[in-house]
Design goal:
The radius of gyration is 13 Å and the shape is globular. β2, α2 and β3 form a beta-alpha-beta unit. The protein has 99 residues and is α+β, with helices and mostly antiparallel strands. It has three helices and seven strands; from the N terminus they run βαβαβββββα. The strands form two sheets. A four-stranded mixed sheet has the order 2-3-4-5, covered by helices on one side. The protein has one domain: tt1808, chain A.
Length: 99
């Protein structure tokens, strides 16, 4: 299992988008992490103001997307994860993590 991910950032991305990263929480599950503990942590982040959360699970090749007032959105083996609309134009390439 790889441990690298690449950020795909368009050249036109404004500095304002980077300020919005403070509203984003990302957890990468390690070999020893409990999935239930990480899910609880993500719920806490959203309850405390995070606007977007990605729980990346390399073991299961899944990403769980958290947003306020929304159901968790599970993605099975995605190639990328989009930050839209909060981080317009931002994508995280997961090839290095899921390979």
């Amino acid at each position: 299992m790889g441990t690298r991910a690449a950020l795909i950032v368009p050249k036109c991305l404004s500095i304002a988008v980077f300020r919005d990263f403070a509203k984003v929480q990302i957890e990468l599950r390690s070999e020893t992490d409990s999935l239930n503990d990480l899910k609880a942590k993500m719920e806490e982040y959203v309850a405390n103001g995070a606007q977007l959360g990605w729980l990346i699970d390399p073991r299961e090749k899944k990403v769980h997307i958290y947003r306020p007032n929304a159901e968790v959105e599970p993605l099975d083996n995605p190639q990328t994860v989009s930050g839209d609309p909060l981080l317009k134009g931002f994508k995280l390439d997961l090839a290095g993590i899921f390979d």
